[in-house]
Amino acid sequence: MIEELKTSFGDLFEAELLDEIARVGTLKEVSAGSKLIEIGAYIRSMPLLLEGVVKILREDSDGDELLLYYLEQGDTCSMTMACCLRDAQSEIRAITETDAKLIMVPIQKMEEWTSKYRSWRNFVFESYHNRLNELLHTVDSIAFMNMDERLEEYLKRKAALNKDNTISKTHQEIAYDMHSSRVVISRLLKKMETIGKIRMNRNQIELLDH
Fold this sequence. Notes:
Elements (H helix, E strand, L loop, with lengths): L1 H8 L5 H10 L1 E5 L4 E3 L7 E7 L2 E6 L5 E7 L6 H9 L6 E4 L3 E7 L1 H9 L1 H27 L2 H16 L3 E2 L3 H8 L3 H13 L3 E4 L2 E4 L3
Helix pairs in contact: 1-2, 4-5, 6-8, 7-8
């Protein structure tokens, strides 16, 4: 575990903190599509992402989901941190977008490490800053971008995360992520294919270079 920690967090944390994380943390390997955190649940440990991608979702009063942001290697979820510190129920849902490997850290260590390690303190503040910027970007895209622009940005982001221009998603799954309907997404994808931006196969969308 310590070598994987050094790979993902070695440039952020000092050796003593890495050793502590390895000692008290629990290594967890999960497949794509696994639910890590559920809305309404109490969170007893905080994830540090070693490998893979995790998507963070919010749910409205009708039960429809909205994609807030993604977590990648070296990230943690600041909204999870906030719930841990307040002993509050989770307001987000976390689902693995790809196969993932995480270290789950007991919440009791968060306050201790904040006063003990400067690097941990900086990591927590930087995580809040990064997630806030991503949330603002999500709000801006909803408020100021057309749905076709949002869809194109969504596909480019997915391709960058997976390091692959072929995106394995159904139209319904994309609609869930974007808080839209399958009919709208299918129509916009067809439009993108007609003008040569994508090529569609069964449950796959290939972004074409221009």
